[in-house]
Write a structure and sequence with these properties.
By secondary structure, this protein is an alpha/beta fold. 51% of the residues lie in helices and 7% in strands. It is built from 22 helices and nine strands. Strands 3-5-4-6-7-9-8 form a seven-stranded parallel β-sheet, with helices on both faces. A two-stranded antiparallel ribbon has the order 1-2. A hairpin with an 8-residue loop joins strand 1 and strand 2.
Length: 615
């Protein structure tokens, strides 16, 4: 008699095997047999074996699971929307390997249920050698192809290339992530089996199985949501709420009455938050002198109104403060009022707010309101309703105030939102037509995949226009662009004299994962990958079930780690949006180029100040 260990993809048990039974047969014994053995009493301890957890770390990996893991690893190396850093690639590949292992294990178990006959020991040995060789060859090839594909995307985006040792780090990270997920899955599976065996003592087996699965599922979901997720959100919220007290060293309290936090303001400077102080503080926007230098004409000091999360207890009170500030500063006497819906942390894109002030010689009033401390990707998960409520209530209040004015005295009402801010802006309107009826112009930059109006317009695009750059009704009112020149492309839109000014402009980079991620990527190929391809698209990119979902989800986390004009970074590309919507009489293409150059210079100066402050 020989002692051997059960090594199938089930619970590990120590079995006594007859001398004449080949050890290879033990490799293929069923999970049911292993479970039955695991429930027996340990001869030495007298304790039920299902309490033992050694098998979680020592059980041999399943052949089918490893084959599936190899396939999914290769797929994870294929290109997606943006180039991935080492950490992101390692996480994506590790998750893919774990998923592939699960699929492969399920397929293997299904085959063994149908085909009862065990393969010979020789066949099994050959299969393992073939798998080992395939892992070396296919894994190596896809590492090579993956690095080439990443180089291609990085070259298109003018980014630094990864080095050879970075790909070694990717392999190590992949193994670590996949290993952690495998151990977690085995612990969950083992807990379920232990609960089933315990319940079998008191109830029928079929009832025990159903109850055990439900109980473990509820425990896992409850732990993931109630402990892990909520704990993470709470920690992030605490961290960002503390950092929201900071003021950047180049920003100081405004001395102008035309800015929130300044003299006679009803909003206290200390309640604005970091992003609000950046918005209204000195050095937070162009001065009258800088505007005059650009336009060559007499300029007006711009009005900037901001209400922070700490400025009032609820949204309604914050809207009331914003309206008081607009009235106090004489904002409704300006030619242009812009209602900005912020991102999660309260940020408003400086490129956008600066460019509209240069465009109109400072004869503008801009208002924004914070609704969260959290970065947009977290706010999207937990504060989505706050973004929509803030956008809806602030835009409605300003619109209602303007509607009370005589038609000839009314300022032009513009609305702006970027990323999650675009979602909040859209929430103020029930349809694209409703938006046109209630505001004069709208600039929505980098809309999220949850933006309902954007999705509606995309689905109604003209025949022949791609989903990544839809043309709606010939561009009569709504225009989309993946590059600034799209807005003036005669092949896309008729001449200005024929179509009149734009009403809604939505710039979004051709492969912005914030825009193109969709839950149904899990099992459905997106429209943006059919027909003509976008400019940043890799020829090797294609949709792959499950894998593409996780690739694009990971791309969202890295969407700002790319140069402006790619991913979720827009830079001075937003200038053309304002020009199309609200250019003054006599504005020329040379003026647009000059303004873009100026916005780029100001962005570079901000980056230099941030680097100096950090270092």
């Amino acid at each position: 008699m020989n002692a051997t260990t059960e090594i199938d993809d089930g619970v590990a048990t120590d079995d006594v095997v007859p001398d004449d039974q080949p050890a290879s047969e033990i490799d293929s014994s069923s999970d049911a047999d292993a479970d039955a053995d695991a429930a027996s009493e340990d001869a030495e301890t007298g304790r039920p074996r299902f309490w033992r957890t050694r098998w979680v770390f020592t059980r041999r990996l399943c052949f089918g699971g490893l084959a599936g893991a190899l396939v999914f690893f290769c797929l994870s190396m294929t290109p997606s929307l943006v180039p991935r850093a080492v950490l992101m690639q390692g996480v994506v590949s590790g998750v893919a390997v774990a998923i592939g292992y699960g699929f492969g294990s399920m397929l293997s178990a299904g085959i063994r249920k149908v085909i009862k006959r065990e393969p010979s020991a020789t066949l099994k040995s050959r299969a393992w050698w073939i798998l080992a060789g395939s892992t070396l060859v296919m894994g190596g090839l896809y590492l090579y192809f993956g690095s080439a594909w990443q180089e291609d995307i990085r070259r298109n985006m003018e980014m630094e290339q990864l080095r050879a040792y970075d790909w070694v780090s990717v392999v190590i990270l992949t193994a670590i992530v996949a290993g952690i997920l495998l151990v977690v899955s085995r612990l969950i599976r083992g807990a379920t089996k232990a609960l089933i065996r315990f319940g079998d003592r008191f109830m029928p087996h079929s009832l025990t199985v159903n109850i055990s699965i439900v109980v473990v599922a509820l425990l896992v979901v409850g732990f993931a949501q109630g402990v892990l997720f909520n704990g993470m959100v709470s920690a992030i919220n605490s961290t960002y709420s503390l950092s929201d007290r900071d003021t950047n060293p180049w920003i100081s309290q405004p001395t102008s009455e035309l800015r929130s936090g300044g003299p006679n303001s009803v909003v206290e400077w200390d309640t604005l938050g970091t992003k609000g102080r950046d918005f209204t503080g000195n050095c937070g926007g162009p001065t009258v002198e800088q505007i005059q230098e650009f336009t060559g004409e007499t300029a007006t000091e711009p009005i900037r109104i901001y209400v922070g999360l700490k400025s009032a207890d609820d949204i309604r009170d914050r809207v009331d403060l914003a309206m008081q500030e607009l009235e106090r500063t004489g904002a409704f006497e300006r030619s242009v009022i812009v209602v900005n819906t912020t991102t999660g942390t309260g940020w408003v894109d400086e490129n956008v707010v600066d460019s509209i002030e240069f465009l109109h010689g400072g004869d503008t009033a801009q208002v924004a309101m914070q609704y969260s401390y959290l970065p947009s990707w977290v706010s999207f998960l937990v504060d989505l309703s706050k973004a929509s409520e803030t956008g809806e209530q602030l835009i409605t209040a300003v619109r209602d105030r303007i509607s009370q004015m005589a038609p000839d005295d009314r300022p032009t009402l513009l609305v702006f939102g970027e990323s999650l801010g675009s979602y909040g802006t859209e929430a103020a309107f029930t349809s694209p037509e409703n938006m046109l009826a209630n505001v004069d112009r709208a600039l929505l930059v980098g809309p999220t995949f949850a933006n309902e109006l954007h999705a509606e317009l995309t689905s109604e695009r003209d025949d022949g226009s791609p989903a990544w750059r839809p043309v709606v009704d010939g561009g009569e009112s709504f225009r989309f662009a993946v590059a600034p020149e799209d807005l003036t492309d005669p092949q896309m839109y008729a001449a200005d004299t024929e179509r009149g000014p734009a009403r809604l402009v939505s710039p979004h980079n051709s492969w912005d994962p914030i825009t193109y991620f969709r839950p149904d990527l899990l099992l459905s190929k997106p429209d943006c990958l059919t027909g003509a391809r976008a400019p940043d698209d890799s020829d090797e990119m294609d949709w792959r079930p499950v894998v593409s979902f996780f690739q694009v989800a990971a791309d969202m986390a890295f969407s700002k780690g790319v140069p402006a004009g790619h991913g979720h970074r827009y830079g001075s590309n937003v200038v053309e949006g304002w020009v199309q919507l609200s250019a003054p009489d006599g504005w020329t293409t040379d003026d647009t180029e000059a303004l873009r150059t100026l916005i780029d210079q100001r962005a570079e100066e901000r980056d230099q100040r941030k680097e100096a402050a950090a270092g």
